[in-house]
Each structure stands twice: as structure tokens, then as C-alpha cells.
Design goal:
The chain is of the alpha/beta class. 42% of the residues lie in helices and 19% in strands.
């Protein structure tokens, strides 16, 4: 899951991930987008970009068409349609790598929103499915850099036994501690990453506070 506010570079991150796969692996890739922002050219992989509203009626319709297909990688530019989260889990359970965009501001709120969209009678299945298939959640910002341009600040939450347990119990607030104490597992909170960028002289402290989830952490 790739998330962040508007103009945070989410689409560029997804396109970069797809291009990396395309340049290094022979895979069949399908994107479901509205609209198509980047035109991807086949290198080692075969890429089929489908625009929702033109090539397929909806994201759900597009996902349903792919569940039993031999496609290996699927990218979705939106998860706002009612019922789409459940279908995405079914898609992931079928063995495909799914890269999806969400509008959440943090990795924790993305997981809360994802599970919150599932009906109560399907919630336990969704938690089992998500903990079994989720690789990572990335929440990103593009922050003005010292000297011009913008620099990426990304919060990363990866799946681990601790994360899986918290998700099963739906005690999402505990994920803050996991983000702060699991650097060796590839995790980092957004605020700590912003702090690192300030410390290394890449961004100004005032800019870091504007983009932080907890501005007081930057002052500390």
C-alpha cells in the first residue's frame, strides 16, 4: 500500500516500482488507473494499462477480471469504490503482487481505513487475509529541500509478528511503538525520517514541522 496526501508523489512511486519490475523481471503487469498518468513501455515485462471508465467500467470490475487471470502484478490507482478492499484481498490471495494507492496520511490510518471498510461479518477473514498477504505500507511526503527542489520523506511499516498481532486485536495505537522500535526490520516513522533529514541538513526544521504527524517530535 502506497499512501499520502495529494501531491506527495504516490503515483511516481508506483510507476517507479513497476518500472523496476519491468526492467529486471519477465512478468505480466496490469494497471487499473483513473486517469493513466505515466505511459509505461515494455522492457522485460508485458504491461497492460487499463483506464477505468474507458477500458473497464470500474475498479471492482477490473479486479474481478484479473482474479483468475495469469497476470502476476496488479497496480491500482484508487481504493475508494465500495467493496474494493475485499476484492483486492481476494486478488492478493490468488498469488498476485498488488500495489495499491490510498489517500491516508499515515501507515497506521491506512490499515485502520482498509479494515474499517470491511463489513463486520467479514472482518475476521479480512484480518487473516491482510496479515497473510501484506508486505508493507508506505506513507510519503515531498518536502521542500534546502537549496531547492523537493525531497521524499517516507514512513514505512512492514509486516512482522508484532504488527500481525496488533492488527488481529485492532489495537492500532500500538503500531506507533512498533514503528519507533523496529528499524532493524525496515520500519521507520514519518516524524523520525523528517528528523533525520533535518539533522543531515537536507530540509529545514520549520518545513519538517509542517509535514510531521507530531510536530513536537521534531522540536525534541
Amino acid at each position: 500500500i502506497i499512501c499520502g496526501p495529494f501531491n506527495s508523489g504516490r503515483s511516481t512511486t508506483v510507476a517507479s516500482l513497476l518500472q523496476f519490475i519491468n526492467a529486471n523481471y519477465s512478468k505480466r503487469i496490469v494497471t487499473l488507473e483513473k486517469p493513466i498518468e505515466y505511459a509505461l513501455v515494455n522492457t522485460k515485462s508485458i504491461i497492460n494499462q487499463r483506464e477505468v471508465g474507458r477500458d473497464t467500467p470500474s475498479f471492482i470490475h477490473g479486479v474481478n477480471d484479473l482474479i483468475d487471470d495469469d497476470v502476476e502484478v496488479v497496480a491500482l490507482s484508487d481504493l475508494s469504490e465500495p467493496g474494493i478492499h475485499e476484492r483486492v484481498l481476494v486478488l492478493a490471495e490468488s498469488g498476485k503482487l498488488v500495489i495499491a494507492l490510498m489517500n491516508s496520511n499515515s501507515t497506521i490510518s491506512a490499515i485502520e481505513s482498509f479494515l474499517g471498510s470491511i463489513s463486520d461479518d467479514r472482518r475476521q477473514w479480512a484480518k487473516d487475509s491482510l496479515t497473510g498477504t501484506l508486505l508493507a505500507v508506505v506513507a510519503q511526503r515531498l518536502v521542500p529541500a534546502i537549496g531547492g527542489g523537493r525531497i521524499l520523506a517516507a514512513e514505512v511499516l512492514t509486516m512482522s509478528p508484532a504488527v500481525a498481532s496488533i492488527m488481529q486485536e485492532e489495537k492500532f495505537g500500538q503500531l506507533h511503538t512498533v514503528l519507533q522500535t523496529s528499524r532493524e526490520e525496515g520500519m521507520v516513522s514519518l516524524d523520525y525520517r523528517l528528523f533525520e533529514l533535518v539533522k543531515s541538513g537536507k530540509i529545514a526544521g520549520e518545513e519538517a514541522k509542517k509535514y510531521a504527524l507530531d510536530p513536537s517530535s521534531i522540536r525534541l
